[in-house]
From TrEMBL:
Pfam families per record: AAA_16 (PF13191), BTAD (PF03704)
All copies of domain OmpR/PhoB-type, residue ranges: 1-64
Protein name: OmpR/PhoB-type domain-containing protein
PANTHER family referenced in this protein's UniProt entry, alphabetically: TRANSCRIPTIONAL REGULATOR REDD, TRANSCRIPTIONAL REGULATOR REDD-RELATED
Keyword tags: DNA-binding, Transcription, Transcription regulation, Two-component regulatory system
Family: Belongs to the AfsR/DnrI/RedD regulatory family.
DNA-binding region: 1-64
């Protein structure tokens, strides 16, 4: 914090020991300095002691090139990017800001924030990071990279719901992707949050963006949306596939694909598309394309599932969330939607990407309400005990008596027969959380829980406790859950609702696939050209549900 500045000896003593100094504080300080110099000896010249920490009356100074400190490099890059933005050099500014933000690895000085000056510096740097995120969004919007802006800002908006500049950029990105309703809903949530927390209305700039969206006056940037044809085997960057309350209906923007949208990962690498099979997408919903082929479609392939398409936006968002979670910004992400809409398949793709990046993934499916208490966590602990036997044995040893059956070495398919002690549920839940957090601090990992709506109430309570401890822990928890139904005495709706409505949870509700995604799936399964009218009918009949579409095919 005080690079190349002399810090007086009395101040160092005060900062180290406060009002309880040792009997000989100056001598103790000298000992500390010797240890520090030894630790920093990598900077010494050959044959001489380290001069990184040297005495200079009336105290000591850390003599270091500012470019050797990540916080200084970050602020220098951001300052240069501001000058680039002023000169309208958006690409260079974006590159500098990407490099600056890549230096971050969680909250700075995290272990030292009990000391007020460290807490203040940590807060200052976090505000500087948020300003850089906003500047990066401004540069990306100027370059027409609207999908990337939405993917980056959505998790930030979850964590900082009153950051109006950030919300304005996110609203702009959503609007440019044709997601006007989402942008307007975001504004209403932000305004309500500001009123509830601070008793104020949204600022003038945020209201200006809101009004421009209502009047359809917000510019779309340098790269307009363009129509494309869907070809089998291509991974369309379907930026308009979004969570919606109901399956998509005719009209609107669902034919629009933003030019240059990035794909998070190859989604169709495992398709069985025939060479040249293709389906034309109508330019306007409901109007057949002029090149549509009139003959009937061939017989679909035999199939038990369909290739993964049409979720590029969601996959990008969850990929960014997983990267952040496994870098020390732990959190809970939930994929919800009606049965058969593709929740499990989306989590599988996220899991594949995490494993390809070298991360450990622990995946389980919730056994159902009639299963044993904490049955989900028994499976998770057993998997970790097999993948990290030594580390697991060390961190769980002190809890072996309390957790009982949860730690017993039995096959995972016998988990239903294991009943942990229930006389102290909070102690059980706390112990499991301590074990998971300790293992994550040693090596980050991702937990994936499918069919969360079927989990027992005890497992949901434990998950809620774990989410309270996730911030600043390199552990991500990704869950898939059907939309909660009406509450009843036989279902743990209260616990599930609490998880799915928490401000700490990133929620992605899957709606039906777009017409373009349905056309892609049809093209991969049918050995003939399919006219646009038939594709439109399949989309309407299935409501964009992959499961319903598979049955129709």
């Amino acid at each position: 914090m005080r690079l190349n500045q002399v810090v007086p000896v009395p101040q160092l003593i005060e900062e180290l020991w406060g009002d309880r100094p040792p009997r000989r504080p100056t001598a103790a300080l000298h000992t500390y300095i010797c240890h520090l110099r030894r630790a920093l000896s990598f900077g010494a010249r050959p044959g001489g002691p380290s001069m990184l920490v040297r005495h200079q009356s009336p105290g000591y100074v850390l003599a270091l090139d500012p470019d050797q400190v990540d916080a200084h490099r970050f602020e220098r890059l951001v300052s240069q990017a501001r000058r680039d933005m002023a000169a309208q050099d958006h690409r260079v500014a974006q590159d500098r800001l990407s490099a600056a933000l890549a230096l971050w690895r969680g909250a700075p000085y995290l272990e030292l924030v009990d000391y007020a000056p460290m807490a203040e510096e940590s807060a200052r740097l976090e505000q500087a990071r948020l300003a850089a995120v906003e500047l990066h969004a401004e540069a990306s919007l100027a370059l027409g990279e609207n999908d990337a802006v939405v993917a980056r800002l959505l998790p930030e908006a979850q964590r900082h719901p009153m950051r109006e500049c950030l919300i304005a950029y996110l609203m702009t990105g959503l609007y440019r992707l044709g997601r006007q309703a989402d942008a307007l809903q975001l504004f209403e949530r932000t305004r309500a949050h500001l009123a509830e927390e601070l008793g104020v209305d949204a600022g003038a700039e945020l209201q200006r963006v809101h009004a421009a969206i209502l009047r359809q006056e917000l510019p779309f940037g340098d790269r307009p949306a363009t129509r494309v044809d869907v070809t089998a085997g291509e991974d369309l960057a379907d930026a308009t596939a979004l969570p919606q309350a109901e399956p998509p209906t005719g009209g609107g923007h669902k034919d629009m694909v933003t030019h240059g949208a990035r794909t998070a990962r190859s989604a169709l690498s495992h398709e069985r598309a025939e060479p040249g099979a293709r389906a034309a997408v109508p330019h306007t919903a409901g109007v057949p394309h002029s090149d549509a082929v009139g003959h009937s479609a061939g017989v679909p392939h035999a199939m038990t599932s369909l290739p993964f398409v049409g979720r590029t936006y969601e996959l990008t968002v969850l990929g960014a969330w997983a990267d952040a979670a496994l870098s020390g910004e732990g959190g809970l992400a939930a994929v919800t939607g009606q049965s058969g809409i593709g929740k499990t398949q989306l989590t599988v793709e996220v899991t594949r990407g995490a494993r390809e990046a070298g991360h450990e993934v622990i995946g389980v499916s919730c056994p159902g309400e009639d299963g044993p208490a904490y049955g989900v966590w028994a499976r998770i602990l057993r998997q970790l005990s097999h993948t990290r036997p030594e580390a697991f044995r060390t961190v769980s040893a002190r809890y072996s008596g309390l957790l009982g059956g949860l730690l017993s070495d039995v096959p995972s398919d016998a988990a239903e027969d294991v009943q942990p002690p229930l006389q102290a549920p909070f102690l059980v839940e706390d112990a499991v959380c301590v074990i998971l957090v300790a293992l994550a601090r040693q090596k980050p990992f991702l937990l994936v829980l499918d069919d969360l709506q079927s989990a027992d109430c005890s497992s949901l309570n434990l998950l809620h406790l774990l989410t309270c401890r996730l911030p600043e822990v390199p552990l991500g928890v990704l869950v898939a859950s059907a939309d909660p139904g009406p509450a009843s005495e036989s279902t743990p709706q209260t616990a599930l609702d609490h998880l799915l409505t928490s401000a700490r949870t990133l929620i992605l509700r899957l709606g039906g696939l777009s017409e373009q995604a349905v056309a892609t799936l049809v093209a991969t399964q049918v050995d003939a050209d399919v006219d646009a009218e038939a594709t439109l009918a399949l989309h309407k009949r299935s409501g964009g549900s992959p499961c319903a579409l598979r049955r129709l095919l």
